[in-house]
Amino acid sequence: MSKFKTHDFSGKTVVLTGSGGVLVSTFSVEFAKAGANVALLDLDKEAADRIAEEINKKYPERAKAYKCNVLDKESLQEVNNAIKKDFGPCDILINGAGGNNPKATTDNEFHSDDLGNDVKSFFDLEQQGIEFVFNLNFLGTLLPTQVFGKDMIGREGANIINISSMNAFTPLTKIPAYSGAKAAISNLTQWLAVHFSKSGVRCNAIAPGFLVSNQNIDLLFEEDHETLKPRGEKIIKNTPMGRFGEAEELIGGLLFLADENASSFVNGVVLPIDGGFAAYSGV
């Protein structure tokens, strides 16, 4: 008989980086709802504090915010020590910090010799912007895993979930650094799954499809936030379900991967949650 009934993370400590953002804040609420103690890490502590306050109104004393720089190992270690005093060692790590940068984004999809001087081409991308994107996404996943993963070794049900992207399957135009960084996240996820496989720590990832957020709404919609821009139209056209996703639609896959009772033999998987985008050839 299956031991799986429903997701129950009672007594578990879940550490989430990038908790001030739309996606990870939604994850935080759901883990708290399922009984976990949630440690909300973000460089913007005020944003994380707001989420923690909302959670604690419904689920008292289950959430606490911590100011943390995921690119600073000393900062991560200080926060880890504080979390262990407040909630105990990390059981589940959600590496949610990430993002893109305009300095690493081209204006054109295809190179053309006819482009004007005011168009930012591939040759105009700034090293600083590219390094920022790679550091935030890749090192911002690797360093927290180094710090929190050490305490997870041998803990029953311990696991790590990274955030990959549709970019990791097929690179999107205009964002070469972000696409490359997310491909690196998928590769790292598989590497970690193998590396920790004898130590009782699973590692998987989710790869969200296209969701509308404050970060990308101006790329997808005109100023009225209702009329799609050409890029938004392309995405909808190539998403078989014909719409953008919602943050809440990532929860089922996330909790499944995190729950040892549901996915104890699932390891090294990058799960697309994309409305069929990765499966569609465009024909």
Question: How would you describe the overall organization of this protein?
Answer:
The longest helix is centred in the middle third of the chain and has 26 residues, at 127-152. It contains nine helices and seven strands; from the N terminus they run βαβαβαβαβαβααααβ. It has 283 residues and is an alpha/beta fold. Strand 1 (13-17), helix 1 (22-33) and strand 2 form a beta-alpha-beta unit. Helices cover 39% and strands 13% of the residues. Strands 3-2-1-4-5-6-7 form a seven-stranded parallel sheet, with helices on both faces. The protein has helices at residues 22-33, 45-58, 73-86, 127-152, 176-195, 217-220, 230-237, 251-258, 260-263, and strands spanning 13-17, 37-42, 63-67, 92-95, 159-163, 202-208, 270-273.
Brief synopsis:
The protein is α/β, with parallel strands linked by helices and 283 residues long.
